[in-house]
Amino acid sequence: MFKVLVSDPISDLGIQQLMDASDVVVEKKTGLSEDELIQIIPDYDALLVRSQTKVTEKIMEAGTNLKVIGRAGVGVDNINLDAATKRGIIVINAPDGNTITTCEHAFAMMMALARHIPQAYAKTIQGTWDRKFLGVELRNKKLGVLGMGRIGSEVAKRAKAFGMDILGYDPFMTEERAEKLGVKLATVDEIVRNADFITVHTPLTPETKHMISRPQFDVMKKGMRIINCARGGVVDEQALVEAIDQGIVAGAAFDVFEQEPPAADHPFLNNPKIIVTPHLGASTVEAQENVAIDVSEQVLHILRNEPFKNAVNMPPVAASVMNKLQPFFELGEKIGAFAAQLNNQAVHEIHVEYAGDLAEVDTQPLTRYIIKGVLSRHFGNDVNIVNSVHLAKVRDIDVVVSQSSASKGFTNRISVTLKTEDGKDRRIAGTLLKEYGARIVRIDKFPVDIAPEGNLIFISHNDKPGIVGSVGTLLGKNDVNIASMQVGRKIIGGEAIMVLTVDKTVSKEVLDELMSLQELNTALQIEFKS
Ligand SMILES: NC(=O)c1ccc[n+]([C@@H]2O[C@H](COP(=O)([O-])OP(=O)(O)OC[C@H]3O[C@@H](n4cnc5c(N)ncnc54)[C@H](O)[C@@H]3O)[C@@H](O)[C@H]2O)c1
Ligand SMILES: O=C(O)[C@H](O)COP(=O)(O)O
């Protein structure tokens, strides 16, 4: 039974499928301190959070059963991603579920800012009929959008309907997409010099921190209004207050702060030109259901060892590519595991060659499975597809990948060579056959045809008459039934291999007995974890 801890307020309806799952127990405990979380986290397989819970390295260290952290929302700045990756904890988010809601909040803030709605409301309910609040129209104004991702693009679309001219800045925005959205691409400098309103929609990164600060306020169009519903820190709070005092900025609307919640004496909280909300951008019934549904779905997949999406600490791969690669994951892991079990030297390089159908696909996720297979011999369950690349790196194992269309007669082919210091490299190649499934087609220099499943015994020997018979007799004597046998050799009387599929695992004593047979050099059991 998997245990899931929900440590922030997350929509009940959204996590219903987790609560209904027969193999999952969900417990909700919100408002916990770091110490309290450290105490209880060892019991849980998954942790579901929003932005309040700070998932620190200490919490992950204590979370020895933790397999996945699900963020019901977009930003993962409250989760120590490096610590998660090192420990093989998958971090997933729900990137699409709150886009529209947050865009609408940014727009509501822009309109409230343009028409002084919060200030006028406050006065009116205090009994003051103050009609001096003079606003501005959005029509014909220039809106600068910094960060033209999901939310920025939606804001731009709505702003067009209000008759605004949009200047967009995003290093990853193409001319073509800008044109499609009716946005004029501009630099930050052009935006601050020309825009009447600026809205920021970037993540907080070293590049975006204080993207709007003193130098930008110094050249800014006078009377500009600024909205931040992205992340505190993208706009320099101190510099903004000064720019308001100097009459450069006419007003600001902020949903997010450099430190949340802000201190009671934060300068935004008593400035009549700044309106604020307590990080409510994603807080609608719809968005909260959406993000919780998305994240619950993926958490279930991860716990059940099924393919999943939206991992934040793994390279993103298009769904179409993932669908193409998915059938190869098990084969790749088995090839890696097979090669690792043949090898008994320190590996300094894992060389992966993809051929045929796999020649022109982004195979990064598949490589992670292969590395996992190789490393699992020594790391067991501590290695997974999230940390396999990291673990190889910290052990100074280079991972070299090559792709080629020459697939030696197979429609697809994966070949894994473990390179060792003594030059005794081990190589396993495999393929996925349409009708027959996964096959191992090469072991070192020997072509073979083996299904990588069940209990295999790998034997290397000198090609001499009678050896196959001796092996069969010895195994029979030890009550080991042989289901199938493959032999491979390059030249008559030379080096040869034998791979037997047997009905049960064999003991070390039986392997030692095999080793004592004349002309036999190696006898190894090869196991595949399901
Ligand atoms: N207030 C809230 O409750 C709330 C809700 C949802 C999202 N957010 C935040 O809003 C922001 C945007 O979310 P999104 O879903 O649109 O993300 P997104 O990833 O779709 O878009 C972010 C965009 O920022 C761009 N970007 C990155 N670095 C940049 C730079 N240096 N200059 C300009 N652009 C840069 C990226 O190219 C990307 O297009 C995030 O910070 C997210 O955490 C806040
Ligand atoms: O990154 C996000 O998704 C937003 O900041 C929303 O955060 P929340 O889930 O804490 O409201």
Question: How does this model look, in words?
Answer:
The chain is an alpha/beta fold and 530 residues long. The chain folds into four domains: 2-97 and 286-313, NAD(P)-binding Rossmann-like Domain (Rossmann fold); 99-276, Rossmann fold, CATH 3.40.50; 315-452, 60s Ribosomal Protein L30, Chain: A (2-Layer Sandwich); 453-530, Alpha-Beta Plaits (2-Layer Sandwich), CATH 3.30.70. The protein is 33% helix and 24% strand. The protein has 18 helices and 22 strands. The protein has helices at 16-20, 34-40, 57-62, 81-87, 99-115, 117-125, 150-161, 175-181, 188-194, 214-218, 237-245, 285-303, 319-325, 329-342, 364-379, 388-394, 467-477, 508-515; strands at residues 2-6, 24-28, 46-49, 68-71, 90-93, 142-146, 165-169, 184-185, 197-200, 224-228, 249-254, 274-276, 347-356, 398-404, 412-420, 426-433, 437-443, 446-450, 455-462, 482-489, 495-502, 520-526. It has a seven-stranded parallel β-sheet with strand order 8-7-6-9-10-11-12, with helices on both faces. It has a six-stranded mixed β-sheet with strand order 14-13-15-16-17-18, covered by helices on one side. Strand 7 (165-169), helix 8 and strand 8 (184-185) form a beta-alpha-beta unit. Helix 5 (99-115) crosses helix 7, helix 14 (329-342) packs parallel to helix 15 and helix 15 (364-379) crosses helix 16 (388-394). The two termini are 18 Å apart. The structure holds nicotinamide-adenine-dinucleotide and 3-phosphoglyceric acid. 3-phosphoglyceric acid binds next to loops.
